[in-house]
Amino acid sequence: MFGVIQVEVTTHCHARCRYCPRAATGLADAPRHMDMATFAALRPILLESDRIHLQGWGEPLLHPHFLDLAQLAVRMGCKVSTTTSGTRMPPELAAGIVDSGIDVVAISLAGTTPGGHDRARPGAPFGMALAAAEAIRRARERRGMSHPQVHLAYMLLAGNAAEAA
């Protein structure tokens, strides 16, 4: 039995985070999305875990069938979470996330201020990350739901350690 299985559903990303290994590994050159059949084939191992976390070095919400993947995992009986930069959160996506059964959405931050965060995460502005959290809160409120929980996942880097103090 596994506690959490992290599944990278896409390597597509619009950000240029300074700490991301995508460029060094070549992932930036050949972005791809996991197909539904591959994800469905993971079922035996997914059922052996407490949680499926949809995240990798790509932005999971850029997968054109992200909500379908999440809903499939939920239908399998899995707890499902994801981590996002928050740069793609129109109201209809926030509503879809709430309706999908995902129970935790983490918004990734690399600073506690716009300046620190934006320096570390070009292409993924601090303000958009906070707006994504608010969009999910509003979608939950409109539906009278308490899930998904929204977590802020703070990446403490050597260059932003002073911000955290």
* Beta-strand segment tally: 5
Strand order of the largest sheet: 1-2-3-4-5
**Stretches where pLDDT falls below 50 for ≥5 residues?**
none
Measured by DSSP, the beta-strand proportion falls in: 15-25%
Question: Considering DSSP H and I runs of 4 or more, what fraction of the residues is helical?
Answer: 25-40%
What does the main sheet amount to?
5 strands, parallel
Q: Mean pLDDT, as a whole number?
A: 91
Q: How would you sum up this structure, described in words?
A:
- The chain is 38% helix and 18% strand.
- The model has no long low-confidence stretch (mean pLDDT 91).
- Strands 1-2-3-4-5 form a 5-stranded parallel β-sheet, covered by helices on one side.
- Helix 5 (91-100) packs across helix 7 (126-143).
- It is α/β, with parallel strands linked by helices and 165 residues long.
Keywords:
single chain; 165 residues; alpha/beta; 5-stranded parallel sheet; 5 strands; 38% helix
Ordered list of secondary-structure elements with their pairings:
Blueprint (H helix, E strand, L loop, with lengths): L1 E6 L14 H4 L10 H6 L1 H4 L2 E6 L11 H10 L3 E6 L6 H10 L3 E6 L4 H7 L5 H18 L5 E6 L6 H4 L1
Parallel strand pairs: 1-2, 2-3, 3-4, 4-5
